[in-house]
């Protein structure tokens, strides 16, 4: 519980700091934006209901139905009032009200299931706050970075055969079918991640504990640290820097029909509205994380994870939102964060430390090469193209080996009510029936009894913090 408290305090401090910075630039921050949705029209109803869904993983089915009913009822009232006042229409206030109500219940009754409820509401609120935080970060990047480094990345992308230009022409040739499908895949990545996350958390209410590691943890950390890289390496993307979407700020309107010339790159000025959100590609990082976590699901989930990864990579390139260099950085960034989150949950080992160190080194080397070696990379694509793919593949290979080793070392699931027999005992002792361990005190005996009063219940497991 101490770890959760420290994480909550740190998160609150970060949100307050971001709110102060945003106010300094003349717009509201994540705390204000989230607070106004208690009464005013929400920006995203599905996002608020996604936060409610994460909160409800700690509830029983009866409690879930009650929570959904209350949320729907509150939303109906808000919609009727907005219709009468001719105000902007949207839904989601009811979901936020229920989540906040669960938070109040968890704060006032911090024992047993209510303590688990506090963690569930924290997870749901973090999902919503993470989205607001990301929006604030993007506004800050557009206000604080007057110039962008797109010419550097475009030159470096010559080493990879300019994949954004190739994918853009491919989508133009296959539109509207390809573009229609990929717009859904690209836009509904959070929904796909929520489904995988809910699958991983489906037994929380029964086991009365959260898994030590799940998809939502990595998603939130990627969204927290990724925008900080935008401040270091501001890039807007080919459709803005070289396409029609850039308007008067674009260097030329040549994407995706004509490749950009290879010249000595220089930073270019850009508007104060377009987010500098390309390096690394967080959509790629999130899609890679979704793919990794879908590997432990059913066959349908594994196929869906693969489809979303391929579709997201194609969309980010084909719509001109990213360069190929962004995608490589996003893959390395995702696997590094994922390994660090796994190790923080299960313990650090030598393989995990190596993957994190390798990933951080490769990620830094990629950004340094894009910034200071783009001309050399464009002049020698036969050397730098395979080299970029090789170093990225090295991180992927190291992650796969470390993940498999960690899975092999994982202990076999314990049988409730039994304890393993020490290897030093004789065969006769091993064959003897094992008596159920006695509780150290009456409180432990009470916690080890389920609703029917039978000891050794499967839901009496230690709570993971």
pLDDT < 50 runs, ≥5 residues: 413-465
Strand content: under 5%
Shape: globular
Structural class: mainly alpha
Overall strand count = 2
Strand ordering within the main sheet: 1-2
Roughly what percent helix?
A: 55-70%
Tell me the span between the first and last alpha carbons.
6 Å
H/I helix tally: 21
Main β sheet profile:
2 strands, antiparallel
What's the pLDDT, averaged over the residues? 85
Give the C-alpha Rg. 25 Å
Order of helices and strands: HHHHHHEHHHHHHHEHHHHHHHH
How is the topology of this model organized?
Blueprint: H1 2-24, H2 30-36, H3 45-55, H4 61-85, H5 93-108, H6 113-144, E1 147-148, H7 150-156, H8 163-174, H9 177-187, H10 189-200, H11 204-207, H12 215-232, H13 238-241, E2 268-269, H14 282-294, H15 299-318, H16 324-346, H17 350-372, H18 374-379, H19 381-409, H20 427-431, H21 442-447
Antiparallel strand pairs: 1-2
Describe this structure as you would to a colleague:
This protein is mainly α. Helix content is 66%, strand content 1%. The longest helix is centred in the first third of the chain and has 32 residues. The C terminus is likely disordered.
List keywords for this structure.
single chain; 465 residues; mainly alpha; two-stranded antiparallel sheet; 21 helices; 66% helix; disordered C terminus
Short description:
By secondary structure, this protein is mainly alpha-helical. The protein has helices spanning 2-24, 30-36, 45-55, 61-85, 93-108, 113-144, 150-156, 163-174, 177-187, 189-200, 204-207, 215-232, 238-241, 282-294, 299-318, 324-346, 350-372, 374-379, 381-409, 427-431, 442-447; strands spanning 147-148, 268-269.
């Amino acid at each position: 519980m101490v770890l959760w408290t420290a994480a909550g305090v740190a998160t609150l401090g970060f949100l307050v700091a971001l709110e102060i910075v945003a106010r300094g630039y003349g717009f509201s921050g994540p705390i204000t934006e989230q607070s106004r949705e208690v009464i005013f029209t929400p920006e995203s109803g599905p996002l608020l209901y996604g936060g409610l869904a994460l909160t409800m993983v700690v509830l029983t089915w009866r409690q879930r139905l009650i929570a959904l009913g209350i949320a729907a009822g509150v939303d109906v009232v808000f919609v009727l009032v907005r219709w009468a006042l001719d105000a902007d229409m949207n839904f989601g206030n009811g979901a936020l009200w229920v989540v906040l109500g669960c938070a109040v219940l968890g704060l006032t009754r911090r024992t047993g299931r209510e303590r688990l409820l506090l963690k569930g509401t924290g997870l749901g609120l973090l999902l919503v706050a993470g989205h607001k935080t990301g929006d604030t970060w993007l506004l800050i990047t557009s206000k604080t970075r007057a110039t962008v480094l797109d010419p550097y990345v475009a030159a470096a992308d010559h080493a990879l055969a300019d994949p954004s230009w190739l994918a853009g022409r491919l989508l133009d040739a296959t539109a509207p079918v390809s573009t229609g499908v990929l717009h859904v895949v690209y836009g509904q990545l959070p929904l796909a991640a929520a489904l995988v996350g809910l699958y991983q958390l489906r037994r929380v209410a029964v086991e009365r504990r959260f898994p030590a590691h799940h998809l939502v943890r990595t998603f939130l950390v990627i969204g927290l640290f990724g925008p900080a890289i935008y401040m270091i390496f501001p890039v807007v993307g080919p459709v803005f820097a070289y396409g029609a979407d850039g308007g008067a700020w674009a260097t030329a309107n040549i994407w995706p029909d004509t490749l950009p010339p290879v010249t000595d790159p220089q930073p270019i000025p850009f508007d104060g509205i377009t987010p500098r959100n390309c390096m690394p590609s967080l959509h790629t990082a999130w899609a890679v994380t979704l793919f990794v976590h879908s590997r432990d699901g059913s066959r349908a989930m594994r196929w869906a994870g693969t489809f979303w990864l391929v579709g997201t990579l194609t969309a980010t390139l084909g719509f001109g939102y990213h360069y190929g260099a962004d995608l490589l950085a996003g893959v390395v960034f995702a696997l590094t964060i994922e390994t660090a989150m796994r190790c923080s949950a299960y313990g650090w080992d030598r393989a995990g430390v190596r993957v994190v160190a390798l990933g951080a080194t490769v990620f830094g080397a990629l950004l340094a090469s894009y910034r200071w070696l783009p001309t050399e990379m464009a002049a020698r694509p036969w050397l730098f193209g395979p080299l970029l793919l090789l170093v990225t593949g090295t991180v992927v290979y190291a992650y796969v080996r470390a993940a498999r080793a960690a899975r092999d070392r994982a202990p076999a699931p314990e049988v409730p009510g039994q304890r393993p027999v020490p290897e030093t005992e004789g065969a006769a002792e091993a064959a003897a029936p094992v008596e159920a361990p006695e509780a150290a005190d009456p409180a432990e005996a009470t916690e080890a009894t389920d609703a029917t009063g039978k000891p050794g219940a499967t839901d009496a497991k230690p709570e993971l913090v």
